[in-house]
Specification:
- It is a single chain.
- Helix content is 3%, strand content 44%.
- The chain is mainly β.
- The chain has a single domain, classed as Sandwich (Lipoxygenase-1).
């Protein structure tokens, strides 16, 4: 299965080529420091987080660098990257969608700038969904964030229950905040 590239506000179903639903996914986030002059852009400390919302938009849980696992164990953050150095995913959140509690209607993926660095100092920001079933590691969906400007947070995407499966909507909604809790109002509005 080749990865689909999403555009802002586009929604697709998270299904495999055979029509079955994805069950184990990795939500990857990557970024680089924007080039500034001859010496590059330095390190950028962004943080990926997942805000779990009920159908009535109440927060059920938050998974972030300060709470690496959801209380029910269905979602796990792999750890904090303080620089954005290197290729590929800088931070990952892994989810066993079969174990996400029934009261969770959506998982909102947000990114914040802990040190307050603005996104105009960041380049190549992307979010992707990888099929982690059986260790496959195949990228299913990718969303490259375009213009982010002088903000300190972004609601990247929302994964929502869709019948027996899940769907993802690319959002790229600007927000301000240093930690996931600061983006709760923007996540609820998504």
């Amino acid at each position: 299965m080749s990865a689909l590239s999403l555009t802002k506000n586009q929604t697709i179903s998270l299904t495999k080529a055979d029509g079955s639903t994805l069950t184990n996914v990795t939500l990857g986030l990557g970024w680089d420091a924007a080039r500034r002059g001859l010496f590059g852009g330095g390190s950028i400390d962004l943080d990926a987080s997942a805000i779990l919302l009920a159908a009535d938009k109440q927060v059920v849980d938050i998974v972030s660098f300060s709470q690496l696992n959801s209380r029910d164990g269905s979602i796990r953050h792999t750890g904090d990257n303080l620089t954005g150095d290197g290729d590929g995913d800088d931070e990952q959140i892994r989810a066993d969608l079969t174990k996400v509690p029934a009261d969770v209607d959506s998982i909102v993926l947000v990114v914040t700038s802990y040190r307050g660095q603005t996104f105009d100092k960041v380049a190549n920001v992307f979010a992707r969904v990888v099929d982690s079933t059986g260790g496959r590691g195949a990228e299913v969906v990718r969303y490259d964030l375009a213009d982010t400007g002088t903000l300190t947070g972004v609601v990247i995407a929302k994964i929502s229950r869709a019948g027996a499966g899940w769907s993802i909507t690319a959002l790229g909604t600007p927000a301000h905040g240093r930690v996931a809790k600061d983006l709760i109002p923007a996540a609820k509005a998504a």
